[in-house]
Design brief:
By secondary structure, the chain is an alpha+beta fold. The chain has one domain: 60s Ribosomal Protein L30, Chain: A (2-Layer Sandwich). Helix content is 28%, strand content 33%. It is built from 4 helices and 6 strands; from the N terminus they run βααββαβαββ. The strands form 2 sheets. It has a 4-stranded mixed β-sheet with strand order 1-6-4-5, covered by helices on one side. Helix 3 packs across helix 4. The chain is globular, with a radius of gyration of 16 Å. It starts with a strand and ends in a 10-residue tail after the last strand.
């Protein structure tokens, strides 16, 4: 299975900061993170893109690549405060919703920032079992 891809256009450093995606609340005396209304809208939009192009996927182990395109440096050269890991759960949930599968089938995830004037999130996935095992095999 070749890589399947979609590109969700947005400005991650502004629209998808963790403060816009999640909030903390108390439940049974414990602090929990809950997705905001804005976060749910982004997740649904990504899921729609995936589903419109690829429909349902049979349950199978998946390898997922997340590339977050944006302007990651200030004029002084220092990187913006944006953790790549903050996007992983959002993208896993959107992908599983769009493919009508459970995110427990995501076996491997890689994520990276890409310096790019075209802002957004590229989501790519393929069958994990059909990947090249590399030189160690």
């Amino acid at each position: 299975m070749n890589w399947q891809k979609v590109f969700y256009e947005c400005e991650p450093s502004k629209e998808l900061s963790v403060n816009h995606l999640y909030f903390t609340t108390m439940k049974n005396g414990k602090a929990i993170r809950v997705m905001t209304k804005e976060g749910k809208q982004h997740k649904r939009a990504m899921a729609f893109l995936v589903h419109r192009k690829y429909k349902d996927l049979p349950d199978q182990m998946l390898e997922v690549k997340i590339s977050i395109h944006g302007s990651w440096h200030f004029k002084n050269g220092n990187p913006r405060r944006m953790d790549v890991s903050n996007f992983i759960k959002l993208v896993e949930d959107a992908l599983s919703e769009g493919l009508n599968t459970d995110d427990r089938w995501v076996w491997k995830v890689t994520a990276e920032k890409v310096e790019d004037s075209h802002h957004g999130i590229e989501i790519a996935w393929r069958d994990y079992l059909q990947t090249d095992p590399g030189p160690e095999a």
